[in-house]
């Protein structure tokens, strides 16, 4: 079975490609942007990469047989030359999530991590916890994990941990990706409005989450955020699976903070203290991620007390408050936050850690929801813990950044380019400051470029 993957250099589809190669399948693929590090990782696996979406990439030629199956990434649209050729020639095709669900996940004990925030970190942590007790899980993580050399592997055990995204599967399948995974254990970490390009309102996302709930068997487990009103609404639509809730001071699994910044906390289950967790992550959102992963690993058969030491060795996913520079007593972080809630909780965790030290934020509105202005009114409140904010307002942004900078009451400014942003931060930054770059895109390498400027 020879596969051609359209959109192969995306994080998810690149993981699908790596898993297919691990299964021994011949794999090739095409993408509009074939570049490192993903291109290097895939080529090292023996995967042929092709630049652009051209019909001839799907055609037989000397030394190049036509693929038996085309796996279509969700960035593909009608009008794409490769897509049009695939349809006209009646080639077999499938979405990435469907291929994964039918080929690799069938018959496995799948642990799916769903939620608006924290999916990548929680998935990485859950895989690390299961690995620490010898369960050798397979996994697919939508980022670069700190404790593994790869972001996807088939695994040796029966468990498979997967980041379960609510985004749609493909241009021909508008269901959320996670409905294809058929998990035995599902984490519902949180639910808020996002993905304004495909969901009209939060109720539409709630319905997709309920589709996921419908697929979890009665002898499985739902691990659910006890604080989240939207998830309560999802469960009220119907639930046929035992539920374990988690929260800070609420739920079946509870955390009691030992350190205000979330770096140490006590865990209990059903009122019985299990032990303390000490680790490097910060913020209440990280504590919630930890509780979710611990509860799910326990549901998979692990002894929760045996899991606790593994938290100390957990290395978070790249670009989650990743320290990328420390020069002239100015610390520079790269963070993936791209939603007001994620921004607020990340900065609150840092504020609890650094006390009265200044926090400067460089913000790029990069996600579809951000670019459309769906979160514009929530941005200024989410930046309450920042002493100064430099907002990247590219000329093509369809809404006025003054909505944000004016609401910051003198703490915010907007610039049109990354070069101007770096210059503005260079002028403002002082010894003792913490500078956080926030974007779910490449940000033109701004965090490391700024760190290099500080080093001179």
Question: How would you sum up this structure, described in words?
Answer:
With 456 residues, the chain is an alpha/beta fold. It has 3 domains: 3-97, NAD(P)-binding Rossmann-like Domain (Rossmann fold, 3-Layer(aba) Sandwich); 107-312, Mur-like, catalytic domain (UDP-N-acetylmuramoyl-L-alanine:D-glutamate ligase), CATH 3.40.1190.10; 322-455, Mur ligase, C-terminal domain (Protein-Tyrosine Phosphatase, Chain A, Alpha-Beta Complex). 33% of the residues lie in helices and 23% in strands. It has 15 helices and 23 strands. The chain has helices at residues 11-22, 38-44, 81-88, 96-105, 119-132, 202-215, 229-236, 284-299, 304-312, 340-354, 368-372, 376-382, 402-405, 418-428, 446-455, and strands at 3-6, 27-31, 48-51, 69-72, 93-95, 109-114, 138-140, 152-153, 159-163, 168-170, 173-176, 185-188, 221-225, 243-248, 253-257, 264-269, 272-278, 322-327, 330-335, 359-363, 388-392, 412-415, 434-438. The strands form 4 sheets. Strands 8-7-9-6-12-13-14-15-16-17 form a 10-stranded mixed sheet, with helices on both faces. A 6-stranded mixed sheet has the order 18-19-23-20-21-22, sandwiched between helices. Helix 2 links the parallel strand 2 and strand 3. The radius of gyration is 22 Å and the shape is globular. The N and C termini lie far apart (53 Å). The relative contact order is 0.09. The model has no long low-confidence stretch (mean pLDDT 91).
